[in-house]
Amino acid sequence: MNSSSVPSAAQPPMHPVNVTVNPLQLLWLQESGIDRLWGRPLAASTVADVSKKESGQLRSEATQPHPPAGPAAAGVAVTSPPAPEIGAAREPVVPASASAPGSTSAARQALAQLREQMARQRGRPAQRGATDSQRTANVQETSVPTTPPGTMAGTAVQTSPPAHDHTVSEAGHRGDVSSQAANTLNQQDANQQWVDLAASIRQCAACGLSEHARQPVPGTGPIPARLMIIDQAPGARDEVSGEPLSGQAGRLLDNMLAAIGFDRESAFITDVVKCRPMVNRPPEPNEIEACATHLQQQLALVQPACLLLFGNAAQSILNTTQSVGQLRETPELAIEVQGRRIPVVVTFHPNHLMANQAAKPLAWTDLKRVRNMLQA
């Protein structure tokens, strides 16, 4: 029923003030949205609420009129009250027959029996604790070496873990520690290799791009990473900041990654060539070839589960002349690095998406493919 069918003068429905729901019912109401129909948020009833409710019921029963006092009525008054919970003290319920004329002795007798019963209920946990303490003391006394061989000695041995189990658990613990230490060493070695590779890229002079570049842009991101993004070449802002895909293109990339539940800090981003060509021209084949070794080493270190190639970077890495639109529609693109197959997704460059809004739905399709590969 839409809101237009409700009269403007109609008042919201009144609901009970004391709404008692258990946690499971409350969860169901919140998931189905029914709790929004109530005037105030629902809350699950606790044990204290239930105890208060029961105490209120007992008090209300004590104030209700009862038939004239008698032996049968006195017996019912003694046996009907529920046993109090452990650790919870309830005030005694005095039967209404105690106030009736001519029934003073019967009421006092019933009240005395009720108090005695409640005292026994309160004393049970203490008695049980004393019994357990006595039993523990007896066990400790019987476990003294003065006991005959073969009686409690066998029980003491069974309570302690076997020596073989200690050996197995210690061996497993040592194996876990050694594997963690090996992983830590591998991670430290990979990080050190990346530091050395980045320093080598900054000092590279294999082609003419290094002569005019302000600074090389090796790449940023964790080692290893499940997603690796590759652009064709650094831009003007990238050359200044030292990071790939900076500026407006970088902000759009952040939004694209957030749309698939990812972020820049979790992806490794780099370029095919590490130095910016002058006047934003595309890199020459010899310049791409000069940086190919660096890119191969990055792929071996990052070990990505998926490659996302922007624009002309796909043509350089896949060594093809097909357009980006054709490569997008090519199924099961992949490259092989050190015997390992890495799936590839090709999409439009963020600069192209900012200038051509109609291409964004196509890029969203590509991003969903990336998400599926990362979740596999």
Task: Write structural notes for this entry.
This protein has 376 residues and is α/β, with parallel strands linked by helices. It is 52% helix and 7% strand. It is built from 14 helices and 5 strands. Strands 2-1-3-5-4 form a 5-stranded mixed sheet. A hairpin with a 2-residue loop joins β4 and β5. α3 runs parallel beside α4. It is elongated and about 115 Å long. 20% of the residues are buried.
Which sequence of strands runs across the widest sheet?
2-1-3-5-4
Structure summary, number of beta strands: 5
User: In sequence order, what are the helices and strands, one letter per element?
Assistant: HHHHHHHEHHEHEHHEEHH
Please give the radius of gyration in angstroms.
39 Å
Question: Pairing-aware structural class of the strands and helices?
Answer: alpha/beta
Principal-axis shape: elongated
Question: What is the helix tally?
Answer: 14
Tell me the helix content: 40-55%
- Proportion of strand residues: 5-15%
- Let me know the largest β-sheet: 5 strands, mixed
Write the topology of this structure.
Elements: H1 23-32, H2 47-63, H3 71-79, H4 104-142, H5 152-159, H6 163-202, H7 209-212, E1 227-231, H8 236-241, H9 247-259, E2 267-271, H10 285-302, E3 306-310, H11 313-318, H12 324-328, E4 334-337, E5 340-347, H13 350-355, H14 360-375
State the gist of this model:
With 376 residues, the chain is of the alpha/beta class. Helices cover 52% and strands 7% of the residues.
